[in-house]
Design a protein that fits this description.
Helix content is 49%, strand content 14%. It has 346 residues and is an alpha/beta fold. It folds into two domains: 1-115 and 287-315, Isopropylmalate Dehydrogenase (3-Layer(aba) Sandwich), CATH 3.40.718.10; 130-278, Isopropylmalate Dehydrogenase (3-Layer(aba) Sandwich), CATH 3.40.718.10. The chain is globular.
Length: 346
């Protein structure tokens, strides 16, 4: 089943989206539904060469701008490329959608049109960050800014299966982001979440401080969307700042330029590990299908990698596994509640 790609989303649309989809079809064998203005999409495909047989164009009459309200694809632009991508997933014509467009609008369209899996109250936006040993999944990074303890438990389940099935971590270690490693540290929210995560049967290792994002001590870090978004934007800004400082120092003297030539392979590897385009996009977990949301400045490589992640996600049936695990947790809670009521009655 194909992946629906929003050809009109992002700062460099439709060029980057079309080229990324073209590469995914040609190099990876992915089947693509390119959703956007037919004339503009066809022009980009002609520029790249003969259209690949794995690509089908779905015409969209409207585009949701990057600065438009998040509710736009639901209330106003119902024939937008973003809304049609979500409809293709909901109708079963596509197994997942990829967009570099308006993040808020993408999240609203996905939740309202595709819908959430049974047991999920709020989908979570996950980010994949580099660490000393591999990758760390951080969620939520912006979909929910007023989460309750039950929501963070759902995030832990989502992150577990994403790290396991897509990142390839057999038994993901899950940490709760807090201001100290001790159980009693943090806010009322984190202390309550800590208690709940201990009973999930997941590989919960306890609280983790900010440094745990990058030291490889955990594979999944759970937090509310407000904190997660601040952490993510700070990490992205720091990576760009370090690269900029290195370039300035290197170009400041002939010796620095010579040293750069000798160390260039190491710099290239560093850039690759910190480049968002290497992973592609952030998954919105908890839906009845896949939704991957990329940076507005996503290039063709980022779109291609996002399509790869969408295929991996769909093949692993992560949505079904999340639903099954949450149903199991609900049954556990019901049994505990029943036992407690029986004890009180007796």
């Amino acid at each position: 089943m194909p992946i629906a790609v929003d050809a009109m989303g992002g700062d460099f649309a439709p060029q980057s989206a079309v080229e990324g989809a073209f590469r995914a079809a040609r190099e990876d064998g992915s089947s693509i539904l390119l959703v956007g203005d037919r004339a503009r999409v066809e022009a980009e495909l002609r520029r790249l060469g003969a259209p690949d047989g794995r690509i089908e164009i779905v015409h969209a009459e409207e585009v949701v701008g990057m600065d438009e309200p998040a509710i736009t694809p639901i209330r106003k632009k119902r024939r937008s490329s973003l809304r049609l991508c979500a409809e293709l997933v909901q109708e079963g014509r596509a197994q997942a959608m990829v967009t570099a467009g308006n993040t808020g609008a993408a999240m609203i369209a996905a939740k309202m049109v595709i819908g959430t899996v049974s047991g999920v109250d709020r989908p979570a936006l996950a980010a994949v960050l580099p660490n000393r040993q591999g990758r760390t999944v951080l969620l939520d990074v912006g979909a929910n800014v007023d989460s309750k303890p039950v929501h963070l438990r759902e995030f832990a389940v989502m992150g577990h299966f994403y790290a396991q099935e897509v990142i390839g971590t057999p038994s993901p270690r899950i940490g709760l982001l807090s201001i100290g490693e001790e159980e009693g540290k943090g806010t009322d929210l984190t202390r309550e979440v800590f208690k709940g995560l201990k009973t999930t049967g997941l590989n919960f290792v306890g609280n983790v401080e900010g440094g745990g994002l990058f030291d490889g001590s955990v594979d999944v870090i759970v937090c509310d969307g407000f904190v997660g978004n601040v952490v993510l934007k700070s990490a992205e800004g720091l990576a760009e700042f370090i690269l900029r400082m290195l370039r300035e120092e290197i170009s400041a003297s002939p010796r620095g330029k010579l040293g750069y030539q000798l160390a260039k392979p190491a710099f290239d590897r560093f850039r690759e590990r910190t480049d968002y385009s290497e992973y592609g996009a952030a998954p919105l977990l908890g839906l009845n299908g896949g939704c991957f949301i990329g940076h507005g400045r996503s290039n063709a490589r980022a779109i291609q990698n996002a399509i790869r992640r969408a295929v991996e996600f769909s093949n692993a049936r992560i949505d079904r596994k999340i639903s099954d695990k949450l149903a199991e947790l609900r049954r556990q809670e019901e049994r505990l509640l029943g036992n407690r009521q029986e004890a009180e009655a007796g």
